[in-house]
Amino acid sequence: MEGPNPSQDTVPSDTEPSNTVKLLHLVLLSTSWGMQLWVTCVAGFVMGSHLPRHTFGFIQRELFPYYFHIGSACAFLNLTLFAMHHPSELLSDEQTIQIIVFFICVAASVLNTQWFGQVTSDIVADMHLVERSHGLGQEVGLATSKSCRELRASNPSYRRLCQQFALYHALSSLCNLCCIACNGVSLYYLATRLSAL
User: Rounded CA gap, 66 and 104, in Å?
Assistant: First the structure.
């Protein structure tokens, strides 16, 4: 009598996820992408053009840690759910690309959560202290006022803060746009697999 072959017991299989797992994956992905589009394309521009700069900066400093942590959690859970149901030994080229896209999204989200977003917020707080001491910051809109430009020209430490802000804000924005693109690609990947609406 032949016993079970141990090598057959360890062969990975591409398991079909349950409908609950599929729903969770879709909810996490769409929640993350919708939140990213809203915060990036709507809320930021509306608040930035209608609120005093310091009020806008304060709201962003309070809002962004939640935004970044929720985005990171969604990205990590999406990667985990996808990887659990697609063993690396059985990945097709499309599935490999999808794993890479999820991994890039996790990396960009974590960079923003743990580094770029926090450093940007800290720099903004320092800039606001300097501006407040010169009676600035209550102007409405994101455009730099003449007074802020003059302060930047006359105050080397404020100028350095402005340069640091420009750098870290650009890096944070790049990570954010990367996550939006990754989630868009992932949603496209899912949409191509829908058999019906």
Answer: 20
